[in-house]
Design goal:
Layout (H helix, E strand, L loop, with lengths): L2 E8 L5 H11 L18 H6 L6 E7 L2 E7 L7 H7 L5 E7 L6 H12 L4 E6 L8 H14 L11 E5 L4 E3 L9 H10 L12 E10 L3 E10 L7 E5 L5 E5 L2 E6 L2 E5 L7 E5 L9 E4 L16 E7 L14 H14 L4 E4 L5 E6 L2 H13 L4 E3 L3 E2 L2 E3 L2 E3 L5 E6 L3 H11 L10 E7 L2 E7 L6
Parallel strand pairs: 1-3, 1-4, 4-5, 5-6
Antiparallel strand pairs: 2-3, 6-7, 8-9, 8-15, 9-14, 10-11, 10-15, 12-13, 12-14, 16-18, 16-19, 16-20, 17-18, 21-22, 23-25, 24-25
């Protein structure tokens, strides 16, 4: 079977999940009379409430006998760890940009990661039906972004499509298009087939985890080399360098939103594997006789930290079911298994833990999930994670974008100056001004403490 693996990357709210909905519908995944909710890939309760993607998820569609594995990634920089591991599973990316807003900070981040991995891009300028759409200007801004990120010459030769994800149309010309066939054709022609050798030593990299009430922990992984069969004895190359021998009890491949039983893997496919106790993200399933582990997934370091503490207030124990430090520790350790961008450190107290992540939104999502699960805890104020580089104390640098009408530009500029920590005679950040149609945009790059 011919396979293509692609990740959809974009800034938050530029229409990734809506476009996946349209691709699922037009590929025949759903029956004609089947009722399907909007943003069907956003299955998490908090994702549907907030209208954003938090967890990377994969699906598969079929186009003229070819299987296209699609990974839908989060659009917020706080969940960048999800994007980084998703890029390990694919051979190309679909860069989605809003036809009005253009490339924004997360666009820069995810595109930079894709270019580092030498993944060929397809540019999709979405929401072409907006009244304030400016497709040509946005295309020029994207080219400038590629050049600013030191893209190679061959990476600049990418196809450009204009889409209306809600209507399910795509075209090489703005304002035209009847369906998504041009998009499917671009994926087939631009994204290379998976490399590797099905007869070589088994190498399957675990990039995500799932859970089944009947099968337990499921490893979602990409087949880089070799062939895995149900009932086969294999070795798990752990992150500490040790090997753990086990037997594969169940294999699944993806078809639409469902997992289908499989007896053996296909080279380059994304599969789900059951029967591997204790497996974690970044580990390699390899041959027991001739193990050949793959390099583990590397994730950018956390930038912000908060203290998670047992509730000691006068109202402790009135709302939550899990209130002890043991409950808190077990829940945080469980989160670390699937959230590779989080870190946890012990503190001087047995009742407190230092949790580090990529941003306040990521940690607030974790806190809200724990609260809904019945955990009761106290949290401290966010603190910047610093580290020493060449004996110098370093802090993270953020990019802060403000878009406003001209009449309020002055107020926003002075407010941003104060928040960015400007001092008389000393500038600790760079600011760029960009003119939009009837609006003003400033891009600040302050230190992490200033925000």
């Amino acid at each position: 079977m011919l396979i293509r693996n692609i990740a959809i990357i974009a800034h938050v709210d530029h229409g990734k999940t809506t476009l996946v909905d349209a691709m699922l519908r037009q590929s025949g995944t759903f029956r004609a009379n089947e009722s399907v909710i909007e943003r069907v890939m956003d299955s998490n309760e908090l994702e549907r409430e907030r209208g954003i993607t938090i967890l990377a998820k994969n699906t598969a569609v079929f186009y003229h006998g070819l299987k296209i594995n699609i990974v839908d990634t989060p659009g917020h920089s706080d969940f960048g760890g999800e994007v980084e591991r998703a890029l390990k599973m694919v051979d190309g990316v679909m860069l989605l940009v809003d036809a009005s807003e253009g490339p924004l900070p997360q666009t820069r981040y995810v595109l930079g990661k894709a270019l580092e991995a030498n993944l060929p891009p397809i540019l999709v300028i979405n929401k072409i039906d907006r009244a304030d759409a400016r497709p040509q200007e946005v295309l020029n801004e994207v080219y400038d972004l590629f050049i600013d990120l030191d893209a190679k010459e061959e990476q600049l030769d990418f196809p450009v499509l204009y889409t209306n994800a809600k209507a399910g149309t795509a075209s090489s010309d703005p304002g035209k298009g009847e369906d998504l066939q041009p998009l499917f054709e671009a994926i087939v022609n631009t994204i290379p087939p998976p490399a590797g050798d099905a007869a070589s030593t088994l190498q399957i990299l675990v990039a995500n985890l799932d859970y089944s009430d009947y099968l337990g922990r499921l490893a979602i992984a990409r087949v880089f080399n070799g062939t895995l069969r149900t009932g086969e004895d294999v070795a798990i190359a752990k992150l500490d360098g040790t090997l753990q021998k086990t037997r594969i009890t169940k294999l699944f491949s993806f078809s639409g939103l469902k997992r289908t039983d499989s007896t053996e893997t296909i080279l380059g496919d994304i599969v789900s594997i059951a029967g591997v106790e204790g497996i974690t993200i970044g580990e390699t399933i390899t041959s027991a006789e001739t193990p050949a582990p793959l390099p583990p997934i590397t994730i950018d370091e956390p930038t912000i930290a908060m203290q998670f503490t047992v509730n000691t207030s006068p109202f402790a124990g009135r709302e939550g079911d899990y209130v002890t430090s043991r409950n808190l520790r077990e829940r945080l350790e469980k989160e670390l298994l699937t959230n590779v961008s989080l870190r946890m450190e012990e503190t001087g107290s047995t009742d407190s833990f230092k949790v580090m992540g990529r941003g306040e939104l990521q940690l607030s999502i974790l806190i809200e999930m724990m609260r809904r699960e019945g955990y009761e805890l106290m949290v401290g104020k966010p603190e910047i994670v610093t580290r020493r580089v060449d004996a110098k104390l370093m802090e993270p640098v953020k990019q802060h974008t403000v878009s406003r009408l001209y009449r309020v530009a002055g107020r926003d500029s002075s407010s941003s100056d104060r928040r960015a920590g400007r001092r008389p005679g000393r500038s600790i950040y760079r600011v760029f001004f960009v003119e939009l149609a009837g609006a003003w945009r400033a891009v600040h790059r302050p230190g992490g403490r200033c925000l």
